[in-house]
Specification:
The termini are far apart. This protein has a 5-stranded mixed beta sheet. Strands 1-2 form a two-stranded antiparallel ribbon. The protein contains 21 helices and 7 strands. The chain has 575 residues and is mainly alpha-helical. The longest helix has 24 residues.
Length: 575
C-alpha cells in the first residue's frame, strides 16, 4: 500500500524510511490487516498510533528539559548564540567582558567564531531573544526540531499497515539515543530534521518543481547545520540517483537550476564566512593511513549497532531470509537502497573525519545521526519480516528489539550490560542524577564577587558551562599568548600569566593541570588556598553518546580526589 497519490517514486535515499519500505510486508507485498479490517478501522488505528507516539515523544523530549546544566559543547553553542543575540554575528567577545576562545582560539578568525556552520547558533539566539537565557531555552529549538522529525517519520509511514506503523512507533519511542541527541543544544536535531526533509522531498519528487525547491531549501539548512552531514547525505543521494532513481525520472535543465542555483548562492556565502579551513582547526584534518581509515569504517558500522541506531543482526537476518525467498517473494527494492545509503554515509564520514584511532576506541557516532531515522525504519521492517505476518510475533519481537539492547550485544558491553536503555532513560528523566556544574556555579555565585576572575583548569568541559551559569565572573587564561594580531588589545585577564586569577577551579584530576599552569605562568609570591570542595562526582556523564553516559548516579567515588576543588587567591577579596 505505497503512497502513489502523486506518482511518487517508491524509494528515497537518506536518513528516513521510504513509504515503500514502511509498507512492505515480509514477503514483499503490502502489509495489511486481516480481511475483516475495514479502511475506516485501519485509519483509526493509524491515527491512534501516531497520536500516541507523538505524545510519548513530546514527553521524552521536553520533560525536565532544563534540569541538567549545559555540558561543554552545549555551553559553547549557547554562548555563541548569546553573541549572535548581542551582535548579530558569531562574535567571540561577549558584552559581559568574557570571551569564547576554546583551545586558545582555534575556532577564531580575528575575534569571530568561524570554525563551524552557524545554524545552531542562530537558532539558539532566536530562542534566547523570545524566551530569555537559560538551559531549557537553549535546548528548546532543537527539541522542537526533534519532535518535527518524529512527526515526519510518522507522516511518511502513514499509509503503511497498522502492524508496521506499530513496529515503527515502538522503534521511535524505544530509541533513547534519538531523544538524547534531540534534547541537546547542538546541531544534532536540526541536521537530522533537515536531512529527513531532503529525503522526503527527494522521495516525493514527481516532476513538479515544488519538491525540488523544498529539497534545495532543506539542503541549505543542512549545510548550515553541519558540513560533513551535508556531504554524506548528498553523496548517498547521488549514488541512489545514478543506480536507481534516474531510471524512473530524469532531471531537466530547469530542474537542475532549481536544485543547485539557490544552494550555490547560499552555501557559498555561508562557507566563505564560517570556513574551518581559515582557522587553526583546519590543521587537524590530518592524513591517515589506509589501516586507520579501514578501522574507522569498521567502527562506524559497528557502533551504529552499539548505540542502538539500528539492529544489524536483525536487519541482516531479515535481508538473508528475504534474499533466499526471492522467487516466492521479491525483496522490496527499498531495502538494498536503504542499506546502500548507510554504507555510503559511513564511507564518506570515514573519508572526511579527523578522528584519531589512537585516542579512542569508539566511533564519533554523532556525525552519523542522519542514519538514525533510517535505522529505526529498517529495523522495524526487519521485525515485520521476521514475524512472518503474525501480529502475535510482531509485538514481542518489537518489544525485545526496541526496548532492550540484547540484539545490539549489550550483554557484552562493560559500560552497560544487558538493559532496557529506554527504561533507563525514562527513570533518569523522572529522577535526574547529580551533575557537577550547577553546584559549582552556585558556590561561585554565592562566594565570588561580580567581576572576580576565575581560571578553570579543564577548559571547555568546565569553563564554558560555568561561564553560562555564572556570567558575572571573568573567565581567565583562555589564550596562551598574544601571538595573533587580534589578541593584541584584549584585556590581560584572558592571557595566561599576565595577571593572576582570583579563583581557581579544578574538576577532579584536573587539579594537576592547575598546578602545572601555576608553575609555568604563576607570579612569584602569589599563593592560593583551598576554599571549598564541592561534593559531587566531577565528570559530565550526561552526554548523548550511550558509551559516555550513565543513567544512574555515581555514589562511590573518592571524595578527596573525584570532586570539584575551588581555590582562592590568598589575601584577595571575595564575599
Amino acid at each position: 500500500m505505497n503512497d502513489n497519490s502523486d506518482n511518487a517514486p517508491s524509494i528515497p535515499l537518506s536518513a528516513e524510511a521510504p513509504s515503500s519500505l514502511s509498507a512492505s510486508a515480509p514477503g514483499g507485498g503490502a502489509i495489511v490487516g486481516g480481511g475483516a479490517d475495514t479502511a475506516a478501522r485501519r485509519y483509526r488505528w493509524r491515527v491512534a498510533i501516531c497520536m500516541a507516539t507523538l505524545v510519548v515523544s513530546a514527553f521524552m523530549l521536553f520533560y525536565n528539559l532544563g534540569r541538567y546544566s549545559l555540558w561543554g559543547d552545549e555551553a559553547l553553542t549557547a554562548l555563541k548564540g548569546t553573541g549572535v543575540m548581542e551582535t548579530g554575528d558569531t562574535t567571540a567577545v561577549l558584552k559581559n567582558g568574557n570571551i569564547i576562545a576554546w583551545a586558545s582560539g582555534r575556532e577564531l578568525v580575528g575575534l569571530k567564531v568561524r570554525a563551524m556552520p552557524p545554524a545552531m547558533f542562530y537558532a539558539t539566539a532566536a530562542s534566547f531573544s523570545v524566551f530569555g537565557v537559560g538551559a531549557w531555552q537553549a535546548r528548546l529549538p532543537f527539541a522542537l526540531c526533534g519532535l518535527l522529525t518524529v512527526a515526519l517519520m510518522l507522516w511518511w509511514a502513514r499509509r503503511a499497515s497498522p502492524r508496521y506503523l506499530f513496529a515503527l512507533s515502538l522503534g521511535i519511542i524505544g530509541n533513547a539515543s534519538m531523544f538524547l541527541y534531540f534534547r541537546n543544544c547542538r546541531y544534532y536535531a536540526l541536521a537530522v530534521l533537515a536531512a529527513t526533509v531532503v529525503a522526503w522531498c527527494y522521495h516525493r519528487w514527481d516532476g513538479r518543481k515544488r519538491w525540488l525547491a523544498g529539497l534545495a531549501a532543506a539542503s541549505s539548512v543542512l549545510f548550515a547545520a553541519h558540513y560533513s552531514m551535508y556531504v554524506m547525505v548528498y553523496t548517498a543521494l547521488f549514488v541512489d540517483f545514478i543506480v536507481w532513481r534516474r531510471r524512473e525520472r530524469r532531471l531537466a535543465v530547469g530542474d537542475w537550476l532549481v536544485v543547485w542555483l539557490p544552494q550555490i548562492i547560499i552555501n557559498t556565502a555561508v562557507f566563505l564566512i564560517w570556513c574551518p579551513l581559515k582557522t587553526p582547526t583546519g590543521d587537524s584534518l590530518l592524513t591517515k593511513s589506509l589501516l586507520d581509515r579501514l578501522t574507522l569504517w569498521w567502527w562506524h558500522l559497528r557502533d551504529l549497532n552499539t548505540v542502538e541506531y539500528l539492529s544489524w543482526p536483525l536487519i541482516l537476518l531479515a535481508f538473508m531470509i528475504s534474499a533466499a525467498r526471492l522467487k516466492k517473494t521479491p525483496l522490496p527494492t527499498a531495502v538494498p537502497r536503504a542499506l546502500t545509503a548507510i554504507v555510503i554515509m559511513t564511507l564518506v564520514l570515514t573519508g572526511v573525519t579527523n578522528q584519531l584511532t589512537s585516542v579512542t576506541s569508539y566511533a564519533d557516532v554523532r556525525y552519523l545521526l542522519p542514519v538514525l531515522p533510517l535505522g529505526i525504519a529498517l529495523t522495524a521492517w526487519a521485525v515485520c519480516r521476521l514475524s512472518f505476518g503474525h501480529i502475535v510475533l510482531t509485538v514481542p519481537l518489537a518489544v525485545l528489539v526496541f526496548f532492550s539492547n540484547i540484539t545490539h550485544g549489550g550483554m557484552f558491553f562493560k559500560w552497560s550490560g544487558a538493559r532496557s536503555t529506554a527504561w533507563c532513560y525514562v527513570r533518569e528523566l523522572l529522577s535526574p542524577n547529580p551533575e557537577p556544574y550547577r553546584p559549582t556555579a552556585d558556590w561561585l555565585n554565592a562566594h565570588a564577587a561580580p567581576g572576580d576572575t576565575v581560571y578553570v583548569g579543564n577548559g571547555m568541559n568546565g569553563c564554558y558551562p560555568l561561564m553560562f551559569l555564572a556570567p558575572q565572573l571573568r573567565y581567565a587564561w583562555q589564550l596562551n599568548d598574544r601571538s595573533r594580531a587580534a589578541f593584541k588589545d584584549l584585556p590581560p585577564v584572558h592571557i595566561k600569566g599576565e595577571v593572576m586569577p582570583d579563583w581557581l577551579v579544578g574538576f577532579g584530576p584536573y587539579v594537576g593541570q592547575l598546578q602545572n599552569d601555576l608553575r609555568r605562568y604563576g607570579a612569584p609570591g602569589v599563593n592560593y588556598h583551598l576554599a571549598a570542595k564541592v561534593d559531587v562526582f566531577w565528570p559530565e556523564l550526561y552526554r548523548p553518546e550511550l558509551f559516555w553516559r550513565t543513567f544512574s548516579p555515581i555514589t562511590s567515588y573518592d571524595k578527596n580526589r573525584d570532586v570539584v576543588f575551588i581555590f582562592k587567591r590568598a589575601g584577595e577579596p571575595g564575599k
